[in-house]
Amino acid sequence: xxxxxxxxxxxxxxxxxxxxxxxxxxxxxxxxxxxxxxxxxxxxxxxxxxxxxxxxxxxxxxxxxxxxxxxxxxxxxxxxxxxxxxxxxxxxxxxxxxxxxxxxxxxxxxxxxxxxxxxxxxxxxxxxxxxxxxxxxxxxxxxxxxxxxxxxxxxxxxxxxxxxxxxxxxxxxxxxxxxxxxxxxxxxxxxxxxxxxxxxxxxxxxxxxxxx
Length: 212
Hints:
With 212 residues, the chain is α/β, with parallel strands linked by helices. The protein is 45% helix and 12% strand. The protein contains 8 helices and 5 strands, in the order βαβααβαβααβαα.
């Protein structure tokens, strides 16, 4: 069943799990027959804003560009999954106003835990250099006051967070209910968009969640 397009915006501090959950959610939506596209914040910056720095205004510009791309996907009936920090509450309000069907997902994890599990040592390098414009250290992050979904990624598995998001999308009528007989597909045109191993893993997970 074709559903109206929508955007899921995953916001949270660095290393909170936005990219991991974004990829999983995109695959899950494709397995439910939707044309879903994952927009990762750093990729959007490299492609559409290489001149932008990390000043408040340039961060806002980066978020607006991500929202513009997401709006085109949603207008075409697809699902845009955006993994971007979007640290400013005002910028997220702008994105919400721009995007229509908008689901804000807050990946909530204590800063100390993020620092301890940061395998890429992003926080360590930022602290060594005086924090600078690193979000959560030298630059502020304004947590969402009332997100549609809150994922406690400090103690939830990625699968548990995915289940929360899918449950919300189902309850909101943005994806098919589990009993509507939705069958897995590789996208709106039926073309495979990920490996057989990945597809089997996602389909098995969705069956366990009751979506297939």
